[in-house]
Amino acid sequence: ACHACTAALQLFGDDVNTIAYTENLDSMHKVVLAAPTEPKLLALCQALRDANIDYKLWIEQPENIPTCVATKPYPKADVQTFFKGFKLFK
Fold it and tell me: What keywords is this UniProt entry annotated with (predicted)?
């Protein structure tokens, strides 16, 4: 999750929401949710893409296995519907 978050911040560093998010380091909020299967993770990516939500799919190398999706910072109301049904990662 750390790699995907870091990559998303780098990729979308010039975005107004990313800038606002990183201006107050002590208040940055992240949620890590679990995708039960790779197909569900990839379906989430497709739904995000269809809605023009910017994200980074982290693919673990050298295994070439998709392991994590991180969106750029968005207001919760803009993205929460995509993550309904996913539970907190434990």
Answer: Hydrolase
